[in-house]
Every structure is written in structure tokens, then in C-alpha cells.
Design goal:
single chain, alpha/beta, Rossmann fold, 2 domains, two-stranded antiparallel ribbon, globular
């Protein structure tokens, strides 16, 4: 392959070195995986939808969130998470097995790619750097589709590399197609951006053999054909979803997402400075040292830029231009940033620069690994403080201890159903209704989870006392306190940012007195 490095400057890693690396990364990713409660709202939402799929009367084909149809993402993440719940029971560890699986796929994919293109030493260092990137470590332990998407796209690129190595083998091309399709079933159009970066990089570098092995036109067609059944069937059953899929989910994310995910144009560029620590600063120092010591630094033309850099740049450019901004969008490009850093380090070592660089890399990895381990001890300490995007685990445990039967909340916390159960009402101005005819009916409640803050007292009056009212930060404007005209607060508790009160209606209180 044109532009491929000439080999690794260090000795080839032994099996013992590989085993030690994999065990260290496994420890780093698994350590106290389930000690932290599910974060709100993201982890709670994905757990909620996955849990709904196992309930009687619900279809695995149509994702539901708190009994409303929820079509933001294709169902693969939910299917795998629901399978983990079925096999291992409801736990935070089971909920996070899917991103952990995605991280394993990504490490395999980027290591495989580095090995095939640049040799075993670069592969070893790439896996080390990828596994210790801050963003990678964090999202490997966070339930969302992003790490699974990263795993599939990285594996798809690795299969393409193997196809190229084997002179365009259709078998490996087909494996790449299946991985791209799985990425589509995970997060739809987001799966096409790394493919775009790969095609752009091959074209710019004039790597015609790589393009022939990729067969980009056939690859795109295959992804769309294999990835379309879910969308086509749902639009057949619910014709109004056509506007939802094409308008809100595609045009909306480009021009302005209705969820308000806006940020400055430099958002992702600035984010990567923190998310891709610790490797780029160390690399920057080494490159600066090389530039200062070189008598006549050679300029590298943009056609010589390595393929992994084109993949990273394509992703950053696309998401910089797209209106919708979230910190997780750049994750699929983190493995390729790690490969670029590893390659740059290897190049410096080949030329005799920064001769102690293996120790520098190990030291940086150990320092950040220690930081990550420390973070795993701190995270559970903010468990009940929703203002810090924590969880509702302690709230659910408290309600179960008190044998609460019915709960009314003045916010929507999707994870509460994971920790407490179905008998929860949310007082919100707008329910997450995506289909006009969707009632959101919950069998366990005999009605929807979501109630209007202006007329929820009618629902309250139909339920026997006592019930529990949960408010965020004891908000005096909460519609929950409108219930005081119908009864009495018989117990008040505070748990972090929650105010939890036991409420009995006037008729019951009168009988007791």
C-alpha cells in the first residue's frame, strides 16, 4: 500500500506482551463496571427501551420508551441490551455489556488494521493508545449506541484492509459489508461517515487498488438494501414516520435538530482536545522537538497524509458542519486517531528522535489508567444528584424499601422504571409521542405514564392512598404541590436533589383521625 510505514522500530511484541496488554485493558474497562447507577437521561432511556421489549404485548420490532413508540434509532442496540437483561438479569453491568462489546470490536478492528498495514509493533501500540483514550474508556462503560457503532465501523474497515491485502477478495468484502450493515442497524446514517472518510482518503492518495477492493458504489448499495427493511416496514405500518425519518432524523440533524443540540462550530474540534487525551499532547511535543532539531524538515504533501488521518478529518469536518452537536459523535474516529498517533511515534523512533518514547508512552498510559480507576471510585458518590447528570438508583431503592405502590414525579426520569417498576406517572407538559395515534397506554397503570401538569389530580383521585410524590430540588412551583388541597403530606424525605413525600388523600386521612 502506498505510503505504508516500513516497519516497527521496536522489537515485535511477544505473546506475553499481547496477553499483558489485553488483560490490562480488560481490567481498565471492567473495573467496577456496575457500581455506578445508570446516568440520566441517556443510559436510563436506552435501558428503558430495552426493558420494554421484554414486556408482554410489546414487539421487539418497534422500540417503545415508557410505552410510547420511540423511533430515533434502529433497534440493534436495544435487541442486544434486552438479550443481556434476559441472560444476566436487570443490572448496570448487564446494561453496559453492549458498549463493552463494541469496545472489544473496535480494539480488534483497529489492531487488525494496524497489523495488516504497518506491522505487529504498531498494532500493539495502537491498541494500547486506543484503549486508554479518555473518550474511548468513558463511552465503553456507558450505555449508548455510539460505542457499538464504533465497533462495527472499525471492524468493517479492518475487513476492507484484509480484502485489499487479498487482492479484493469477495469473502472479506462481504464481511466488511455485513459489519457496515450492522453499524447501520445501530445508528443509521452515522455509519456512512467513516465509509465516506475511507473513500475520500483512498481517492486523494490515488490508491486505486484500495478503491477496487472497497467497491464503494456496491458497498453503499448493499448497506442501503440490507439496512432498509426496518425503516420500510415501519413506514408501511405508520406512514407518518416518513416525515419523521427523513425530516427530523436526517434534515433536522443537518439544519437544526428539534432537541436543541446546538453548539459553536468549533465544538467538536475543541472537544477532541480533551476527549483524545493523553496521546496528542505527547505526540505534539515530540513533533515539535523533531522540527526544532531537523536541519531541513521535509514538507509532507497532503496526498501523502496517511489514510487514518483522512478518516479522522472527514468525521470532524462533517460533524463540524452539521447543526446537531453531541460529545459522542466523534467516537468512531478515536481508534483512527490512536492509529495516527502510534504511527507518528513509530516514525519518530525510526528516525532516531525521542529515543525514550516507549517509556513515555507507557508512562502516559499508566498515568491515565490510574486516573480512570480513580474516577470509578468518585462517580458513585454523586449517585442521587441529577443536577450532575447522575442516576435515580438510590431513589428507586428508597421507594422499594418503603413498599411504594404508585409514584408521581415532576420530571421524566426514564431510568426510574428500570429501578422501581412500571407504576410511575410523570407530570410533564409534553409526552414523548412520535405517532399521533399513540396513546402510550401502560397495562400496569391502566393509562399512560405521562400526565398533564394541569389536570393530573383527576388521575390521583382515582388511586387509593398512599402515593409518593417526587420533586427535583423541592421546587415550590412543582405541580405536585397542587395535591395539598386533596390531602396531607404524611412523611417527607430528602435524598440528594430529590424531595420525596408520602401523600394521603383527605378521605383516608379523615378516617384515620
Amino acid at each position: 500500500m502506498s505510503g505504508v510505514g516500513t516497519g516497527a522500530p521496536e522489537s515485535t511484541p511477544s505473546r506475553r506482551s499481547w496477553l499483558g496488554l489485553l488483560l490490562a485493558l480488560a481490567f481498565l474497562l471492567l473495573f467496577r463496571l456496575g457500581d455506578r447507577g445508570l446516568n440520566e437521561p441517556d443510559e436510563g432511556r436506552y435501558a428503558n427501551i430495552s426493558l420494554e421489549m421484554s414486556e408482554a404485548g410489546h414487539s421487539a420490532w418497534e422500540p417503545m420508551m415508557s410505552d410510547f413508540g420511540h423511533y430515533d434509532k434502529p433497534p440493534l442496540t436495544y435487541w442486544l441490551t434486552a438479550l443481556a437483561f434476559r441472560l444476566l438479569g436487570l443490572s448496570e453491568t448487564a446494561a453496559r455489556l453492549v458498549p463493552l462489546f463494541g469496545a472489544a470490536l473496535a480494539l480488534i478492528g483497529v489492531g487488525w488494521t494496524a497489523y495488516r498495514l504497518y506491522g505487529p509493533s504498531t498494532a500493539w501500540w495502537t491498541v494500547l493508545m486506543c484503549g486508554t483514550l479518555g473518550q474511548f474508556w468513558l463511552l465503553a462503560r456507558f450505555l449508548s449506541p455510539d460505542m457499538l457503532l464504533t465497533g462495527w465501523t472499525t471492524l468493517a474497515l479492518a475487513a476492507w484492509v484484509e480484502a485489499r491485502h487479498r487482492h479484493g477478495s469477495w469473502i472479506w468484502w462481504s464481511l466488511s459489508l455485513l459489519a457496515w450493515t450492522a453499524a447501520w442497524w445501530t445508528k443509521a446514517t452515522a455509519a456512512l461517515i467513516p465509509l465516506l472518510g475511507l473513500a475520500v482518503g483512498l481517492w486523494v492518495r490515488r490508491d486505486w487498488a484500495g478503491l477496487r477492493a472497497l467497491r464503494p458504489g456496491w458497498m453503499l448499495l448493499g448497506i442501503l438494501v440490507l439496512g432498509s427493511p426496518w425503516y420500510l416496514d415501519l413506514m408501511r405500518v405508520h406512514p407518518e414516520l416518513q416525515d419523521f425519518f427523513l425530516g427530523r432524523e436526517i434534515v433536522g440533524r443537518i439544519a437544526g435538530h428539534p432537541d436543541g443540540r446546538k453548539a459553536p462550530i468549533y465544538f467538536h474540534l475543541l472537544l477532541t482536545l480533551g476527549a483524545w487525551l493523553p496521546w496528542w499532547p505527547v505526540l505534539l511535543v515530540a513533533l515539535f522537538r523533531r522540527w526544532r532539531q531537523a536541519a531541513a524538515p521535509r514538507r509532507v504533501g497532503w496526498r501523502e497524509w496517511p489514510l487514518e488521518l483522512w478518516i479522522v478529518l472527514s468525521g470532524l469536518i462533517v460533524f463540524t458542519c452539521v447543526s446537531s452537536k453531541l460529545p459522542t459523535y466523534t467516537l468512531p474516529y478515536a481508534p483512527w486517531a490512536a492509529l495516527f498517533c502510534a504511527r507518528a511515534w513509530q516514525g519518530l523512533a525510526l528516525e532516531g528522535w525521542f529515543s525514550r518514547q516507549p517509556k513515555a508512552r507507557i508512562s502516559a498510559a499508566l498515568a491515565f489508567a490510574a486516573l480512570y480507576v480513580g474516577v470509578t471510585f468518585v462517580e458513585p458518590l454523586i449517585e442521587s444528584r441529577l443536577g450532575r447528570n447522575s442516576s435515580v438508583r438510590e431513589l428507586g431503592a428508597f421507594l422499594r424499601r418503603e413498599k411504594a405502590d404508585l409514584v408521581f414525579c415532576d420530571r421524566y426520569w426514564p431510568g426510574l422504571e428500570f429501578y422501581f417498576g412500571e407504576r410511575v406517572h410523570y407530570l410533564v407538559p409534553r409526552a414523548p409521542q412520535q405517532l399521533r395515534g399513540d396513546s402510550g397506554y401502560c397495562v400496569a397503570l391502566g393509562g399512560p405514564h405521562f400526565l398533564s401538569p394541569t389536570n393530573w389530580l383527576t388521575t390521583l383521585s382515582r388511586h387509593p392512598s398512599p402515593v409518593w410524590l417526587v420533586s427535583l430540588r423541592d421546587n415550590p412551583q412543582s405541580p405536585l404541590w397542587n395535591a395539598l388541597g386533596q390531602g396531607t403530606l404524611t412523611a417527607t424525605n430528602r435524598l440528594g436533589d430529590f424531595t420525596i413525600v408520602r401523600f394521603e388523600q383527605a378521605a383516608v386521612v379523615g378516617v384515620r383521625h
